[in-house]
Specification:
The complex is a heterodimer of chains A (251) and B (353). Chain A has 251 residues and is α/β, with parallel strands linked by helices. Chain A has helices at 31-45, 79-89, 101-107, 109-117, 158-161, 167-172, 188-206, 221-224, 228-242, and strands spanning 51-55, 70-73, 94-100, 123-128, 131-132, 138-139, 177-184, 211-217, 246-250. Chain A has a single domain, classed as Rossmann fold, CATH 3.40.50.970. Helices cover 36% and strands 18% of the residues of chain A. Chain A has a seven-stranded mixed beta sheet, with helices on both faces. In chain A, strands 5-6 form a two-stranded antiparallel ribbon. In chain A, strand 5 (131-132) and strand 6 form a beta hairpin. In chain A, helix 2 (79-89) packs parallel to helix 4 (109-117). The N and C termini of chain A lie far apart (50 Å). Chain B has two domains: 3-188, Thiamin diphosphate (ThDP)-binding fold, Pyr/PP domains (Rossmann fold); 242-350, Rossmann fold (3-Layer(aba) Sandwich), CATH 3.40.50. Chain B has helices at 3-13, 29-37, 53-65, 76-81, 83-92, 118-122, 140-157, 167-171, 187-193, 217-237, 257-272, 290-297, 313-321, 340-350; strands at residues 18-21, 46-49, 70-74, 96-102, 133-135, 160-166, 209-210, 241-244, 251-254, 277-282, 284-286, 302-306, 327-330. In chain B, helix 1 packs across helix 2 (29-37) and helix 1 packs across helix 7. The chains are: A alpha/beta (251), B alpha/beta (353). The interface between A and B is medium-sized, with 30 and 38 residues. Strand 2 of chain A pairs parallel with strand 7 of chain B, so a sheet runs across the interface.
Protein backbone atom coordinates (compact mmCIF):
# COMPACT_ATOMS: atom_id res chain seq x y z
CA UNK A 1 0.00 0.00 0.00
CA UNK A 2 2.77 2.45 0.94
CA UNK A 3 4.44 1.70 -2.39
CA UNK A 4 1.27 2.46 -4.27
CA UNK A 5 0.87 5.92 -2.72
CA UNK A 6 4.53 6.85 -3.15
CA UNK A 7 5.04 10.26 -4.85
CA UNK A 8 6.03 8.92 -8.28
CA UNK A 9 2.75 7.01 -8.52
CA UNK A 10 0.52 9.97 -7.74
CA UNK A 11 -1.46 11.00 -10.82
CA UNK A 12 -3.90 13.35 -9.11
CA UNK A 13 -3.83 15.59 -6.05
CA UNK A 14 -6.28 18.13 -4.80
CA UNK A 15 -5.05 21.68 -5.25
CA UNK A 16 -2.91 22.97 -2.38
CA UNK A 17 -5.16 26.00 -1.96
CA UNK A 18 -8.02 23.68 -1.05
CA UNK A 19 -7.19 23.03 2.60
CA UNK A 20 -8.03 20.04 4.81
CA UNK A 21 -10.92 21.74 6.62
CA UNK A 22 -13.93 19.41 6.73
CA UNK A 23 -16.51 20.76 4.28
CA UNK A 24 -20.04 21.30 5.55
CA UNK A 25 -21.65 20.57 2.18
CA UNK A 26 -24.10 17.68 1.79
CA UNK A 27 -23.15 14.57 -0.18
CA UNK A 28 -23.76 15.14 -3.89
CA UNK A 29 -23.70 18.91 -3.66
CA UNK A 30 -22.05 20.79 -6.52
CA UNK A 31 -20.37 23.37 -4.27
CA UNK A 32 -17.44 21.11 -3.38
CA UNK A 33 -16.58 20.49 -7.04
CA UNK A 34 -16.79 24.18 -7.93
CA UNK A 35 -14.63 25.10 -4.90
CA UNK A 36 -12.01 22.67 -6.13
CA UNK A 37 -12.10 24.15 -9.63
CA UNK A 38 -11.64 27.66 -8.27
CA UNK A 39 -8.68 26.57 -6.17
CA UNK A 40 -7.15 24.76 -9.16
CA UNK A 41 -7.57 27.72 -11.49
CA UNK A 42 -6.07 30.23 -9.02
CA UNK A 43 -3.15 27.87 -8.41
CA UNK A 44 -2.57 27.22 -12.12
CA UNK A 45 -2.74 30.94 -12.92
CA UNK A 46 -0.28 31.61 -10.07
CA UNK A 47 -2.38 34.46 -8.68
CA UNK A 48 -2.82 33.47 -5.02
CA UNK A 49 -1.24 36.79 -4.04
CA UNK A 50 -3.71 38.71 -6.19
CA UNK A 51 -6.93 36.80 -5.49
CA UNK A 52 -9.71 38.26 -3.36
CA UNK A 53 -12.93 36.26 -3.11
CA UNK A 54 -16.29 37.51 -1.87
CA UNK A 55 -18.42 34.84 -0.26
CA UNK A 56 -22.22 35.11 -0.06
CA UNK A 57 -24.95 34.42 2.45
CA UNK A 58 -26.27 30.96 1.75
CA UNK A 59 -24.68 27.53 1.63
CA UNK A 60 -21.32 28.94 0.49
CA UNK A 61 -21.16 31.41 3.38
CA UNK A 62 -18.08 29.60 4.68
CA UNK A 63 -16.28 29.36 1.34
CA UNK A 64 -13.45 31.25 3.04
CA UNK A 65 -12.80 28.27 5.30
CA UNK A 66 -11.88 26.00 2.42
CA UNK A 67 -9.84 27.95 -0.13
CA UNK A 68 -6.68 29.57 1.24
CA UNK A 69 -6.90 33.03 -0.31
CA UNK A 70 -8.05 36.37 1.12
CA UNK A 71 -11.84 36.58 1.44
CA UNK A 72 -14.53 39.01 2.41
CA UNK A 73 -17.87 37.72 3.65
CA UNK A 74 -20.69 39.82 2.18
CA UNK A 75 -24.12 40.71 3.48
CA UNK A 76 -26.87 38.83 1.63
CA UNK A 77 -26.82 39.85 -2.03
CA UNK A 78 -24.20 42.58 -1.76
CA UNK A 79 -21.14 40.71 -3.03
CA UNK A 80 -21.03 42.45 -6.45
CA UNK A 81 -20.98 45.90 -4.77
CA UNK A 82 -18.15 44.81 -2.49
CA UNK A 83 -16.25 43.29 -5.40
CA UNK A 84 -16.78 46.44 -7.51
CA UNK A 85 -15.09 48.60 -4.89
CA UNK A 86 -12.21 46.21 -4.25
CA UNK A 87 -11.42 45.82 -7.94
CA UNK A 88 -11.50 49.58 -8.53
CA UNK A 89 -9.21 50.13 -5.54
CA UNK A 90 -6.89 47.20 -6.33
CA UNK A 91 -7.09 47.16 -10.14
CA UNK A 92 -4.32 44.58 -10.61
CA UNK A 93 -6.09 41.97 -8.48
CA UNK A 94 -8.30 39.03 -9.37
CA UNK A 95 -11.62 39.83 -7.72
CA UNK A 96 -14.48 37.36 -7.86
CA UNK A 97 -17.76 36.71 -6.09
CA UNK A 98 -19.24 33.32 -5.35
CA UNK A 99 -23.02 33.49 -5.01
CA UNK A 100 -26.11 31.32 -4.97
CA UNK A 101 -29.40 31.95 -6.74
CA UNK A 102 -31.16 33.52 -3.76
CA UNK A 103 -28.21 35.79 -3.10
CA UNK A 104 -27.52 36.80 -6.70
CA UNK A 105 -30.88 36.61 -8.45
CA UNK A 106 -33.23 37.66 -5.65
CA UNK A 107 -32.06 39.89 -2.81
CA UNK A 108 -28.97 41.03 -4.72
CA UNK A 109 -30.51 41.56 -8.15
CA UNK A 110 -29.80 45.30 -8.16
CA UNK A 111 -26.16 44.88 -7.18
CA UNK A 112 -25.71 42.06 -9.72
CA UNK A 113 -27.28 43.89 -12.67
CA UNK A 114 -25.54 47.18 -11.95
CA UNK A 115 -22.08 45.74 -11.34
CA UNK A 116 -22.35 43.82 -14.63
CA UNK A 117 -23.81 46.83 -16.43
CA UNK A 118 -20.95 49.06 -15.27
CA UNK A 119 -18.58 46.51 -16.70
CA UNK A 120 -16.80 46.04 -13.40
CA UNK A 121 -13.71 43.92 -14.02
CA UNK A 122 -14.90 41.17 -11.73
CA UNK A 123 -15.89 37.53 -12.17
CA UNK A 124 -19.14 36.23 -10.71
CA UNK A 125 -19.48 32.51 -10.04
CA UNK A 126 -23.21 31.82 -9.77
CA UNK A 127 -24.42 28.54 -8.31
CA UNK A 128 -28.00 27.91 -9.47
CA UNK A 129 -29.65 24.98 -7.75
CA UNK A 130 -33.18 26.40 -8.00
CA UNK A 131 -33.71 26.37 -4.25
CA UNK A 132 -32.64 27.95 -0.96
CA UNK A 133 -30.36 25.25 0.42
CA UNK A 134 -29.00 26.79 3.61
CA UNK A 135 -32.37 27.77 5.08
CA UNK A 136 -33.89 24.40 4.31
CA UNK A 137 -35.36 24.21 0.81
CA UNK A 138 -37.52 27.26 0.22
CA UNK A 139 -38.54 28.60 -3.19
CA UNK A 140 -35.84 30.51 -5.07
CA UNK A 141 -36.21 32.99 -7.93
CA UNK A 142 -34.88 30.19 -10.12
CA UNK A 143 -37.23 27.43 -8.86
CA UNK A 144 -38.73 25.69 -11.88
CA UNK A 145 -42.44 25.80 -12.71
CA UNK A 146 -44.26 23.06 -10.84
CA UNK A 147 -41.24 22.31 -8.65
CA UNK A 148 -42.13 21.72 -5.00
CA UNK A 149 -40.31 23.51 -2.20
CA UNK A 150 -41.19 24.20 1.44
CA UNK A 151 -42.68 27.59 0.53
CA UNK A 152 -44.45 26.36 -2.61
CA UNK A 153 -45.44 22.89 -1.33
CA UNK A 154 -47.93 22.37 -4.17
CA UNK A 155 -45.41 23.34 -6.81
CA UNK A 156 -44.44 26.70 -8.29
CA UNK A 157 -47.41 28.34 -10.01
CA UNK A 158 -47.18 31.41 -12.21
CA UNK A 159 -50.22 33.15 -10.72
CA UNK A 160 -48.92 32.74 -7.17
CA UNK A 161 -45.16 32.88 -7.57
CA UNK A 162 -44.25 34.27 -10.96
CA UNK A 163 -41.71 32.66 -13.25
CA UNK A 164 -38.19 31.28 -12.79
CA UNK A 165 -35.71 34.06 -13.51
CA UNK A 166 -33.11 33.61 -16.23
CA UNK A 167 -30.76 36.26 -14.89
CA UNK A 168 -27.85 34.94 -16.93
CA UNK A 169 -29.78 35.69 -20.13
CA UNK A 170 -30.37 39.22 -18.80
CA UNK A 171 -26.66 39.55 -18.02
CA UNK A 172 -25.78 38.63 -21.61
CA UNK A 173 -27.74 41.64 -22.88
CA UNK A 174 -25.75 44.12 -20.76
CA UNK A 175 -23.05 46.18 -22.47
CA UNK A 176 -20.67 45.75 -19.52
CA UNK A 177 -20.38 41.97 -19.74
CA UNK A 178 -17.64 40.40 -21.82
CA UNK A 179 -18.24 36.77 -20.97
CA UNK A 180 -21.50 35.11 -19.91
CA UNK A 181 -21.76 31.36 -19.79
CA UNK A 182 -23.83 28.61 -18.22
CA UNK A 183 -22.07 25.41 -17.20
CA UNK A 184 -22.58 22.42 -14.92
CA UNK A 185 -20.44 19.92 -13.03
CA UNK A 186 -22.51 16.72 -13.38
CA UNK A 187 -19.93 14.75 -15.39
CA UNK A 188 -16.19 14.73 -15.92
CA UNK A 189 -16.60 16.37 -19.32
CA UNK A 190 -18.83 19.07 -17.82
CA UNK A 191 -16.38 19.67 -14.99
CA UNK A 192 -13.57 20.22 -17.49
CA UNK A 193 -15.68 22.71 -19.42
CA UNK A 194 -16.71 24.49 -16.23
CA UNK A 195 -13.07 24.80 -15.24
CA UNK A 196 -12.20 26.40 -18.58
CA UNK A 197 -15.08 28.84 -18.10
CA UNK A 198 -13.90 29.81 -14.61
CA UNK A 199 -10.37 30.30 -15.93
CA UNK A 200 -11.68 32.51 -18.75
CA UNK A 201 -13.66 34.61 -16.27
CA UNK A 202 -10.69 34.97 -13.91
CA UNK A 203 -8.38 35.96 -16.77
CA UNK A 204 -10.93 38.56 -17.84
CA UNK A 205 -10.84 40.05 -14.34
CA UNK A 206 -7.05 40.20 -14.23
CA UNK A 207 -6.86 41.63 -17.76
CA UNK A 208 -9.72 44.09 -17.08
CA UNK A 209 -11.83 43.05 -20.04
CA UNK A 210 -15.21 43.68 -18.37
CA UNK A 211 -17.62 41.64 -16.28
CA UNK A 212 -17.84 37.87 -16.46
CA UNK A 213 -20.68 35.70 -15.21
CA UNK A 214 -20.29 31.93 -14.93
CA UNK A 215 -23.53 30.22 -13.94
CA UNK A 216 -23.15 26.66 -12.75
CA UNK A 217 -26.42 24.73 -12.89
CA UNK A 218 -26.11 22.72 -9.70
CA UNK A 219 -27.66 20.01 -7.61
CA UNK A 220 -29.12 20.30 -4.14
CA UNK A 221 -29.89 16.74 -3.18
CA UNK A 222 -30.99 17.71 0.34
CA UNK A 223 -33.25 20.52 -0.85
CA UNK A 224 -34.63 18.44 -3.68
CA UNK A 225 -35.03 15.47 -1.32
CA UNK A 226 -33.21 13.13 -3.70
CA UNK A 227 -30.15 10.93 -3.43
CA UNK A 228 -26.97 12.38 -4.97
CA UNK A 229 -27.31 10.15 -8.03
CA UNK A 230 -31.02 10.93 -8.43
CA UNK A 231 -30.30 14.65 -8.04
CA UNK A 232 -27.73 14.51 -10.83
CA UNK A 233 -30.24 12.78 -13.08
CA UNK A 234 -33.10 15.11 -12.11
CA UNK A 235 -30.92 18.11 -12.92
CA UNK A 236 -30.09 16.85 -16.39
CA UNK A 237 -33.69 15.95 -17.05
CA UNK A 238 -35.40 19.10 -15.76
CA UNK A 239 -32.93 21.94 -15.12
CA UNK A 240 -31.09 21.74 -18.46
CA UNK A 241 -34.43 21.99 -20.23
CA UNK A 242 -34.98 25.49 -18.87
CA UNK A 243 -31.42 26.56 -18.16
CA UNK A 244 -29.61 25.73 -21.40
CA UNK A 245 -25.94 25.00 -20.88
CA UNK A 246 -23.39 26.81 -23.06
CA UNK A 247 -21.86 30.21 -23.76
CA UNK A 248 -24.35 33.08 -24.00
CA UNK A 249 -21.76 35.71 -24.76
CA UNK A 250 -18.01 35.72 -25.32
CA UNK A 251 -16.28 38.77 -26.74
CA UNK B 1 -17.63 77.49 -0.17
CA UNK B 2 -20.51 75.26 0.94
CA UNK B 3 -20.02 72.70 3.67
CA UNK B 4 -20.75 69.91 1.22
CA UNK B 5 -18.11 71.19 -1.20
CA UNK B 6 -15.58 71.48 1.63
CA UNK B 7 -16.08 67.78 2.42
CA UNK B 8 -15.31 66.85 -1.19
CA UNK B 9 -12.19 69.02 -1.45
CA UNK B 10 -10.94 67.81 1.93
CA UNK B 11 -11.40 64.19 0.85
CA UNK B 12 -9.22 64.67 -2.23
CA UNK B 13 -6.60 66.50 -0.15
CA UNK B 14 -6.37 64.02 2.71
CA UNK B 15 -5.46 60.94 0.71
CA UNK B 16 -8.90 59.42 0.36
CA UNK B 17 -8.76 56.37 -1.93
CA UNK B 18 -12.40 56.15 -2.91
CA UNK B 19 -15.83 57.73 -2.67
CA UNK B 20 -19.00 55.73 -3.30
CA UNK B 21 -22.36 57.47 -3.10
CA UNK B 22 -25.90 57.93 -4.32
CA UNK B 23 -27.52 61.34 -4.90
CA UNK B 24 -29.88 62.68 -2.24
CA UNK B 25 -30.77 66.22 -1.17
CA UNK B 26 -29.28 68.12 0.69
CA UNK B 27 -25.82 66.66 0.11
CA UNK B 28 -25.53 65.90 -3.60
CA UNK B 29 -22.87 68.63 -3.97
CA UNK B 30 -20.36 66.22 -2.43
CA UNK B 31 -20.57 63.75 -5.32
CA UNK B 32 -21.04 66.58 -7.83
CA UNK B 33 -17.92 68.37 -6.61
CA UNK B 34 -15.88 65.18 -6.71
CA UNK B 35 -17.10 64.38 -10.22
CA UNK B 36 -16.18 67.89 -11.38
CA UNK B 37 -12.75 67.75 -9.71
CA UNK B 38 -11.84 64.41 -11.39
CA UNK B 39 -9.43 63.30 -8.64
CA UNK B 40 -8.87 59.98 -10.45
CA UNK B 41 -6.69 61.98 -12.83
CA UNK B 42 -4.67 63.63 -10.06
CA UNK B 43 -4.48 61.65 -6.81
CA UNK B 44 -5.90 58.43 -8.25
CA UNK B 45 -8.95 58.60 -5.97
CA UNK B 46 -11.84 56.45 -7.20
CA UNK B 47 -15.24 58.19 -7.46
CA UNK B 48 -18.25 56.02 -8.19
CA UNK B 49 -21.95 56.80 -8.30
CA UNK B 50 -23.50 53.62 -6.94
CA UNK B 51 -26.92 52.15 -7.73
CA UNK B 52 -28.18 52.73 -4.18
CA UNK B 53 -27.14 53.60 -0.66
CA UNK B 54 -27.18 49.88 0.06
CA UNK B 55 -24.56 49.33 -2.63
CA UNK B 56 -22.58 52.40 -1.47
CA UNK B 57 -22.15 51.18 2.08
CA UNK B 58 -21.19 47.72 0.87
CA UNK B 59 -18.60 49.30 -1.42
CA UNK B 60 -17.26 50.91 1.75
CA UNK B 61 -17.22 47.48 3.38
CA UNK B 62 -15.23 46.10 0.44
CA UNK B 63 -12.82 49.01 0.09
CA UNK B 64 -12.24 49.48 3.83
CA UNK B 65 -11.85 45.72 4.26
CA UNK B 66 -9.15 45.87 1.59
CA UNK B 67 -7.27 48.51 3.62
CA UNK B 68 -8.26 51.60 1.62
CA UNK B 69 -9.46 54.99 2.92
CA UNK B 70 -12.99 55.04 1.57
CA UNK B 71 -16.03 57.20 2.24
CA UNK B 72 -19.65 57.71 1.36
CA UNK B 73 -22.13 60.49 1.99
CA UNK B 74 -25.88 60.65 2.14
CA UNK B 75 -28.78 62.21 3.98
CA UNK B 76 -31.11 60.76 6.59
CA UNK B 77 -33.33 58.32 4.60
CA UNK B 78 -30.28 57.18 2.65
CA UNK B 79 -28.30 56.64 5.84
CA UNK B 80 -31.23 54.64 7.20
CA UNK B 81 -30.77 52.32 4.21
CA UNK B 82 -27.08 51.96 5.07
CA UNK B 83 -27.60 50.75 8.61
CA UNK B 84 -27.24 47.07 7.78
CA UNK B 85 -23.91 47.70 6.12
CA UNK B 86 -22.69 49.89 8.97
CA UNK B 87 -23.48 47.09 11.45
CA UNK B 88 -21.57 44.63 9.25
CA UNK B 89 -18.62 47.03 9.12
CA UNK B 90 -18.68 47.46 12.90
CA UNK B 91 -18.87 43.69 13.37
CA UNK B 92 -16.04 43.01 10.92
CA UNK B 93 -14.05 45.99 12.30
CA UNK B 94 -13.78 47.83 9.00
CA UNK B 95 -12.70 51.47 8.97
CA UNK B 96 -14.53 53.93 6.74
CA UNK B 97 -16.20 57.34 6.72
CA UNK B 98 -19.94 57.94 6.41
CA UNK B 99 -21.15 61.54 6.07
CA UNK B 100 -24.79 62.19 7.03
CA UNK B 101 -26.06 65.65 6.04
CA UNK B 102 -29.30 65.32 7.97
CA UNK B 103 -32.76 66.30 6.81
CA UNK B 104 -36.11 66.06 8.57
CA UNK B 105 -37.89 62.76 9.06
CA UNK B 106 -39.33 60.27 9.74
CA UNK B 107 -39.57 58.42 6.45
CA UNK B 108 -39.10 60.49 3.35
CA UNK B 109 -39.65 63.49 5.62
CA UNK B 110 -38.41 66.73 4.15
CA UNK B 111 -35.31 68.10 2.47
CA UNK B 112 -34.97 70.83 5.11
CA UNK B 113 -32.38 70.59 7.94
CA UNK B 114 -32.79 68.47 11.05
CA UNK B 115 -30.80 66.75 13.76
CA UNK B 116 -33.26 63.90 14.00
CA UNK B 117 -30.70 61.14 13.38
CA UNK B 118 -28.89 61.55 16.70
CA UNK B 119 -30.28 58.27 18.03
CA UNK B 120 -29.66 56.46 14.75
CA UNK B 121 -26.01 57.58 14.77
CA UNK B 122 -25.16 57.15 18.44
CA UNK B 123 -27.20 54.06 19.31
CA UNK B 124 -26.09 51.88 16.43
CA UNK B 125 -28.89 51.99 13.87
CA UNK B 126 -28.33 48.40 12.82
CA UNK B 127 -28.48 45.11 14.69
CA UNK B 128 -26.33 43.96 17.57
CA UNK B 129 -24.15 45.65 20.19
CA UNK B 130 -21.93 48.13 18.47
CA UNK B 131 -20.91 51.78 18.31
CA UNK B 132 -19.42 54.01 15.67
CA UNK B 133 -17.45 57.22 16.20
CA UNK B 134 -19.71 60.22 15.53
CA UNK B 135 -18.29 63.71 14.91
CA UNK B 136 -20.64 66.72 14.69
CA UNK B 137 -19.23 69.68 12.72
CA UNK B 138 -20.59 73.16 13.50
CA UNK B 139 -18.92 75.02 10.63
CA UNK B 140 -17.74 74.59 7.07
CA UNK B 141 -14.21 74.59 8.45
CA UNK B 142 -15.01 71.58 10.60
CA UNK B 143 -16.64 69.83 7.64
CA UNK B 144 -13.22 70.04 5.98
CA UNK B 145 -11.17 69.27 9.09
CA UNK B 146 -13.20 66.26 10.23
CA UNK B 147 -12.62 64.25 7.04
CA UNK B 148 -8.99 63.49 7.82
CA UNK B 149 -9.70 63.24 11.55
CA UNK B 150 -12.42 60.66 10.84
CA UNK B 151 -10.09 58.55 8.72
CA UNK B 152 -7.35 58.73 11.35
CA UNK B 153 -9.73 57.58 14.11
CA UNK B 154 -11.39 54.97 11.90
CA UNK B 155 -8.09 53.30 11.06
CA UNK B 156 -6.64 53.71 14.54
CA UNK B 157 -9.51 51.75 16.04
CA UNK B 158 -10.74 49.78 12.98
CA UNK B 159 -14.21 51.26 13.32
CA UNK B 160 -16.61 53.14 11.02
CA UNK B 161 -16.66 56.89 11.68
CA UNK B 162 -19.52 59.24 10.88
CA UNK B 163 -19.63 62.96 10.28
CA UNK B 164 -23.13 63.84 11.49
CA UNK B 165 -23.80 67.14 9.80
CA UNK B 166 -27.12 68.69 8.78
CA UNK B 167 -28.70 70.64 5.96
CA UNK B 168 -27.60 73.95 7.49
CA UNK B 169 -23.89 73.14 7.70
CA UNK B 170 -23.98 71.28 4.38
CA UNK B 171 -25.49 74.20 2.46
CA UNK B 172 -24.15 77.27 4.26
CA UNK B 173 -21.27 79.14 2.61
CA UNK B 174 -18.36 80.15 4.83
CA UNK B 175 -14.68 80.86 4.49
CA UNK B 176 -12.64 77.72 4.87
CA UNK B 177 -8.96 76.87 4.96
CA UNK B 178 -8.61 73.57 3.19
CA UNK B 179 -6.17 71.05 4.66
CA UNK B 180 -2.73 70.69 3.05
CA UNK B 181 -2.31 67.95 0.45
CA UNK B 182 -1.45 64.56 1.86
CA UNK B 183 -0.68 61.75 -0.61
CA UNK B 184 -2.72 58.56 -0.71
CA UNK B 185 -0.99 55.74 1.11
CA UNK B 186 1.29 53.60 -1.02
CA UNK B 187 0.77 49.87 -1.40
CA UNK B 188 3.68 49.25 1.00
CA UNK B 189 2.15 51.57 3.59
CA UNK B 190 -1.20 49.80 3.37
CA UNK B 191 0.44 46.40 3.75
CA UNK B 192 2.36 47.70 6.78
CA UNK B 193 -0.51 49.56 8.44
CA UNK B 194 -3.34 47.13 7.65
CA UNK B 195 -1.93 43.61 8.05
CA UNK B 196 -5.52 42.42 8.60
CA UNK B 197 -6.83 43.66 5.22
CA UNK B 198 -7.66 41.53 2.18
CA UNK B 199 -4.82 42.78 0.03
CA UNK B 200 -4.03 39.44 -1.56
CA UNK B 201 -2.25 36.64 0.28
CA UNK B 202 1.45 37.22 -0.38
CA UNK B 203 4.48 35.13 0.58
CA UNK B 204 2.39 32.37 2.11
CA UNK B 205 1.08 34.50 4.97
CA UNK B 206 -2.09 33.25 6.72
CA UNK B 207 -5.24 34.24 4.85
CA UNK B 208 -7.11 37.38 5.81
CA UNK B 209 -10.87 37.07 6.12
CA UNK B 210 -13.20 40.01 6.63
CA UNK B 211 -16.40 38.75 8.24
CA UNK B 212 -18.82 39.44 11.06
CA UNK B 213 -20.03 35.82 11.15
CA UNK B 214 -19.22 33.31 13.89
CA UNK B 215 -21.58 30.47 14.76
CA UNK B 216 -19.84 29.27 17.94
CA UNK B 217 -21.48 31.22 20.80
CA UNK B 218 -18.29 31.28 22.89
CA UNK B 219 -16.23 32.66 20.01
CA UNK B 220 -18.93 35.20 19.16
CA UNK B 221 -19.10 36.33 22.77
CA UNK B 222 -15.33 36.72 22.82
CA UNK B 223 -15.50 38.88 19.72
CA UNK B 224 -18.24 40.99 21.29
CA UNK B 225 -16.22 41.44 24.47
CA UNK B 226 -13.27 42.54 22.35
CA UNK B 227 -15.50 45.14 20.64
CA UNK B 228 -16.78 46.40 24.00
CA UNK B 229 -13.20 46.75 25.29
CA UNK B 230 -12.34 48.75 22.19
CA UNK B 231 -15.35 51.02 22.77
CA UNK B 232 -14.22 51.62 26.36
CA UNK B 233 -10.78 52.66 25.11
CA UNK B 234 -12.35 55.07 22.64
CA UNK B 235 -14.58 56.53 25.39
CA UNK B 236 -11.50 57.06 27.55
CA UNK B 237 -9.40 58.71 24.84
CA UNK B 238 -11.46 60.35 22.14
CA UNK B 239 -14.10 62.58 23.76
CA UNK B 240 -14.01 66.03 22.17
CA UNK B 241 -15.93 69.11 23.32
CA UNK B 242 -15.85 72.85 22.76
CA UNK B 243 -16.88 75.21 25.56
CA UNK B 244 -17.86 78.84 25.46
CA UNK B 245 -18.09 80.96 28.60
CA UNK B 246 -18.69 78.05 30.93
CA UNK B 247 -16.23 79.29 33.62
CA UNK B 248 -18.71 81.59 35.36
CA UNK B 249 -21.93 80.17 33.92
CA UNK B 250 -25.08 79.97 36.03
CA UNK B 251 -26.89 78.18 33.23
CA UNK B 252 -25.64 75.85 30.53
CA UNK B 253 -26.83 75.18 27.01
CA UNK B 254 -25.77 71.86 25.49
CA UNK B 255 -26.04 71.88 21.70
CA UNK B 256 -24.21 70.30 18.75
CA UNK B 257 -23.72 71.13 15.08
CA UNK B 258 -25.82 73.94 13.63
CA UNK B 259 -27.83 74.21 16.87
CA UNK B 260 -24.62 75.16 18.66
CA UNK B 261 -24.12 78.06 16.25
CA UNK B 262 -27.63 79.32 17.03
CA UNK B 263 -26.97 78.85 20.74
CA UNK B 264 -23.77 80.93 20.51
CA UNK B 265 -25.78 83.95 19.35
CA UNK B 266 -28.40 83.34 22.06
CA UNK B 267 -25.66 83.24 24.72
CA UNK B 268 -24.08 86.50 23.54
CA UNK B 269 -27.49 88.20 23.73
CA UNK B 270 -28.26 86.69 27.16
CA UNK B 271 -24.89 87.86 28.49
CA UNK B 272 -25.75 91.40 27.31
CA UNK B 273 -28.75 91.16 29.63
CA UNK B 274 -26.46 90.04 32.46
CA UNK B 275 -27.59 86.41 32.44
CA UNK B 276 -24.50 84.22 32.69
CA UNK B 277 -25.00 81.35 30.28
CA UNK B 278 -22.34 79.05 28.87
CA UNK B 279 -22.27 76.60 25.96
CA UNK B 280 -21.02 73.07 25.91
CA UNK B 281 -20.80 71.71 22.39
CA UNK B 282 -20.14 67.99 22.10
CA UNK B 283 -17.91 67.53 19.05
CA UNK B 284 -17.97 63.77 19.48
CA UNK B 285 -21.57 62.61 19.95
CA UNK B 286 -20.15 59.15 20.49
CA UNK B 287 -18.16 58.96 22.64
CA UNK B 288 -20.36 61.46 24.51
CA UNK B 289 -18.85 63.93 27.03
CA UNK B 290 -20.71 62.56 30.06
CA UNK B 291 -17.94 63.45 32.53
CA UNK B 292 -17.61 67.10 31.59
CA UNK B 293 -21.38 67.65 31.61
CA UNK B 294 -21.57 65.98 35.03
CA UNK B 295 -18.90 68.39 36.33
CA UNK B 296 -20.75 71.41 34.98
CA UNK B 297 -24.04 70.10 36.41
CA UNK B 298 -22.58 70.72 39.86
CA UNK B 299 -21.91 74.33 38.95
CA UNK B 300 -25.03 75.54 37.11
CA UNK B 301 -28.64 76.07 38.16
CA UNK B 302 -30.08 74.47 35.05
CA UNK B 303 -29.20 72.95 31.67
CA UNK B 304 -31.09 73.56 28.43
CA UNK B 305 -30.44 70.94 25.78
CA UNK B 306 -31.06 72.54 22.42
CA UNK B 307 -31.24 70.27 19.38
CA UNK B 308 -33.23 70.38 16.14
CA UNK B 309 -35.38 67.35 16.92
CA UNK B 310 -37.97 66.18 19.45
CA UNK B 311 -35.38 65.55 22.17
CA UNK B 312 -32.76 62.90 21.59
CA UNK B 313 -29.39 64.08 22.94
CA UNK B 314 -31.24 65.26 26.04
CA UNK B 315 -31.33 61.62 27.13
CA UNK B 316 -27.53 61.53 27.21
CA UNK B 317 -27.43 64.85 29.01
CA UNK B 318 -29.80 63.49 31.67
CA UNK B 319 -27.68 60.34 31.98
CA UNK B 320 -24.67 62.59 32.59
CA UNK B 321 -26.43 64.91 35.04
CA UNK B 322 -28.10 62.16 37.09
CA UNK B 323 -30.54 64.63 38.63
CA UNK B 324 -27.90 67.04 39.95
CA UNK B 325 -29.62 69.99 38.28
CA UNK B 326 -32.81 70.52 36.21
CA UNK B 327 -32.46 69.56 32.53
CA UNK B 328 -34.89 70.80 29.87
CA UNK B 329 -34.99 70.50 26.11
CA UNK B 330 -35.94 72.70 23.20
CA UNK B 331 -36.12 71.82 19.53
CA UNK B 332 -38.11 72.03 16.33
CA UNK B 333 -39.03 69.37 13.82
CA UNK B 334 -40.21 69.25 10.23
CA UNK B 335 -37.23 71.11 8.82
CA UNK B 336 -37.74 74.29 10.83
CA UNK B 337 -34.52 75.84 12.13
CA UNK B 338 -35.14 77.63 15.46
CA UNK B 339 -33.94 81.21 16.03
CA UNK B 340 -31.70 82.47 18.86
CA UNK B 341 -34.71 84.42 20.23
CA UNK B 342 -36.65 81.18 20.69
CA UNK B 343 -33.71 79.71 22.60
CA UNK B 344 -33.49 82.81 24.80
CA UNK B 345 -37.23 82.75 25.53
CA UNK B 346 -37.14 79.02 26.33
CA UNK B 347 -34.20 79.36 28.72
CA UNK B 348 -35.86 82.23 30.58
CA UNK B 349 -39.17 80.44 30.81
CA UNK B 350 -37.72 77.02 31.78
CA UNK B 351 -35.62 78.45 34.59
CA UNK B 352 -37.90 81.35 35.66
CA UNK B 353 -35.34 84.04 34.91
Amino acid sequence: MENIISPENIVYQKPKLLNDEHMHYCPGCSHGVVHKLIAEVIEEMGVTDKAIGISPVGCAVFAYKYIDIDWQEAAHGRAPAIASAIKRLWPEHLVFTYQGDGDLACIGTAETIHALNRGENIAIIFINNAIYGMTGGQMAPTTLMGMKTSTCPYGRQADLHGYPLKITEIAATLEGTCYVTRQSVHSVAAIRKAKRAIRQAFENSINRRGSSLVEIVSTCSSGWKLSPVEANEWMQEHMFDYYHVGDLKSI
Amino acid sequence: MKGNEAIAHAAIRCGCDGYFGYPITPQSEILETLAAQKPWETTGMVVLQAESEVASINMLYGGGGAGKRVMTSSSSPGVALMQEGIAYMAGAEIPGLIVNVQRGGPGLGTIQPSQGDYFQATRGGGNGDYQIIVLAPASVQEMADFVDLSFELAFKYRIPAMILSDGVIGQVMEKVKLPPFKPRRSEEEILRDCPWATTGRRNGRPINVITSLELQPEAMEKHNLHLQEKYKTICANEVRVEEMQTEDADFLIVAFGSAARIAQKAILDLRQEGIRVGLLRPITLWPFPYDRIRELAGQVKGILTFEINAGQMVQDVRLAVEGRTPVTQYGKMGGIVPTPDEVIATLKSDFHI
